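Re: weekly structure request thread

Next one in the queue (267 aa):
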Amino acid sequence: MKNFIVRNYFWLNFILLFIIAISAFILLLFAGIRPSNATTITILVGFIYLWITSTFRKMHMRKVTDLLFDKCDPKRFLTETDLLLKGEKNRLTKLNFLNWKIAGLIADYSFDEAEEIQKSTETLFDEQAFSKRIPVSLKITFAVNFVNLALQTNEISEAEKWLKTASDLTKSAYLSKYERVRLTKSMNLAECAYKLKLNKTDGCEDMLKGVIDFETRKSNKVYAHFLLGKLFLLQSRKEDAEKEFDFVIENGNRMAVVGDAQDFIAT
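Done, posted below.
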């Protein structure tokens, strides 16, 4: 039942709104309310209904994103996100879902599907009428996800391209102070992953510790600890690395990096 409602949210919402509006209008007429006043009250009832359903929709979306960002369970998150995508008609909201889905697929090491989504969304960076209406913050997070995906599939030049895109967008965009810091921390994670891929460590320890101190999303903290463990291994600091990997194993739940952390400790 829940899956049916989520998948058909748009049409069910429209039908319920229609039924409520007609019912309210008829009841008001039977109560002796003038047609003009009944129309005004009916419109008001419609707006209240839309506000209530929108609030519940946002609450459900928050629960879904919490599956990835707080509970570190990409598999359950992906299942719920697919349902949201099927029931969503708004193009911009769909893009947000797809952005989250790429992050979830990377966390689950499901790279083939993530690459398919990337191919279908790269046009967001073209100079088109619709792409100009997309919030810059969303473009930046897409670019950061593309960096992480390229690194996982060993496409270093692609990672460099998207890292530069994210950096250029952040520098030129008008963002709130908090939004700029949040996006910069996300880029720091991607930049450190890029450097570590090339066996470089310069500046990464401070950046990763800065991410850990700032982040409220558990999944990002886990990934930062994982990268810090890899950094310590490159520096031959095995005990420090094991502490970081222990954190990943204890807190990463069903994220794929948990398996990698276990392998690092076992070797």
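The radius of gyration is 23 Å. The mean pLDDT is 89.
Next request, please.
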